[in-house]
Amino acid sequence: MKYKISVVIPAKNEADNLKRLLSELMGMSEFHEVIVVNDGSTDNSSQVIRQSGATLVNHQVSKGNGAAIKSGVRAATGDILVLMDGDGQHQALDIGRLLNRLDEGFDMVVGTRDNDGQAGFGRQLANGFYNRLASYMTGQRVEDLTSGFRAVWRNKFIKFLSLLPNGFSYPTTSTMAFFRAGYSVAYEPVQVLKRQGKSHIKPLKDGLRFLLIIFKIGTLYSPLKLFVPISFSIFLLGLGYYGYTYSSAGRFTNMSALMFTTSLIIFLVGLVSEQITALLYKDTEE
Q: Among 87, 182, 249, 276, whose CB has the most other CB atoms within 10 angstroms?
């Protein structure tokens, strides 16, 4: 491609994995620069990065995977960003396939994992649920919402930098933001290698965070598509309970009133959220 390509890799305590990955990347002449953000590592990651010849962006303390991505994107000077994880699961040879799809006219290309590439059965189920929910919200097929391997135009990605969280859900946020802004997203199957070392994701500690991703999916795209079904379900439940109490006791109960009120509040929250979401994306319109 005739464009400058910047590879951005967030890493925390991934010295062993970075040795192999950076050896592959630095041996390829296609890239304008390879930037590795050392997110407060306590191992010798910084030394490995310097010895490889890659550009080092150093966080003195760990700020999170999303914060590392934002630092790397700010430091990048290329036209195209290739975002990869630093855990050794992504292969440098797959980058060319993502770039080819980008060259076809897409705004972002996501490297999609198969079931074998998911980190455990629980993560596989969770990611499958996120994909189906995102597909419902956007009306388009979302094949891998949480993949951290993607190629994207920098001038478009940087518009949404302020929306990205500092934690692990930056792939979800960026994908939904691109859909909301009307940009085109493509998916390219890639083979994911088995992770070497221990994952930084803790299922019990991060369980609530992953549940919050579900609501983030809705609020980033179209809150009403999430809130209206919930509101309508509670309204029907209240209506059914009212029918039961009226036929059995001839009265309207406080519980029915509470359900009707709750359904109205949820609908109004969704309506306000829809307007706030529209304002969030106003500055990203070209």
A: 87
Q: Which of 171, 128, 175 is nearest to 146 (CA)?
A: 171
d(CA 51, CA 46): 9
Q: Write the DSSP string, 138-189.
A: HSS--S-TT---EEEEHHHHGGGGGG--SSTTHHHHHHHHHHHTT--EEEEE
Q: Which amino acid is at 119?
A: A
pLDDT tens figures, 160-218? 998 888 877 889 889 988 988 889 999 999 988 876 655 555 555 555 666 677 677 77
Distance from C-alpha of 131 to C-alpha of 43, rounded to nearest angstrom? 35
List C-alpha distances in Å: 89 to 17, 40, 186.
9, 21, 20
- One-letter amino acid of 146: T
What is this structure's pTM? 0.80
Within 8 A by CB and 6+ apart from 76, the residues are: 6, 8, 33, 35, 154
